[in-house]
Amino acid sequence: MKTDKGIFVDLIRAKDGLKPLDVETDDTILVRMEHGSFKVRIHSPQPADVMVHLDGTLTVETKVAQGMSMIDRGADGQPFVFTQPGKKARTTDGDIQPTLFTEAVLDNERPVAPSHGLVMVSVKFSEQPGQKPDKSETVFFQMNPPQDHARAVAANLHRIVPPEGVTNSGCGCCNNH
Questions:
Q1: Can you give the residue ranges of every domain in the chain?
Q2: Taking a C-beta distance cutoff of 8 angstroms, is the pair 50, 125 a contact?
């Protein structure tokens, strides 16, 4: 998603580094995401301040340099994780393993709160000498597991924003308007 200021923000699967399928609606980006760890990718034309909220909780507030940056951990050092409702993820030597809430947590494992998939990324250009403070823009992502993604898209079909170059009557290259 490109913000009005030209900052690109999207989510990336940590296991393979690929961008999952997503659909932009008028207020949220619906993301087809498998359960597991993920990253927030920022590509900014100049240094920017970034805040990432996961399920309504501020997870990290940081600055990114001009160019592409990846944010994959919260301020507590734990990786961003999208888990199934009713399950928790545990980290053991950096690996993410889904476990039931009722399972015992071993001494060398740190629990990670369950995620329902709502990611809010607020971005604004960092203050530069002689410039007015910038207003932040927020991009909302709703991650859904593959089996639920089609249902979420169908429920929001009337709110989908066509990709750049595509009009409501077809692609921009055709004269069949």
A1: 8-83+114-169
A2: no
What contacts 25, CB < 8 A, 6 or more positions away? Answer: 156, 159, 160, 161
For residue range 16-57, list pLDDT tens digits in order.
Answer: 999 999 999 999 999 999 999 999 999 999 999 999 999 889
Q: What is the pTM of this model?
A: 0.77
Architecture label for domain 8-83+114-169: Sandwich (2.60)
How far is 72 from 107, CA to CA, in rounded Å?
24
Whose tokens are 């203050």? That residue is 127
Identify any residues that bridge with 61 across adjacent strands, giving them in sequence order.
51
Q: From 95, 78, 84, select the one nearest 33 (Cα to Cα).
A: 84
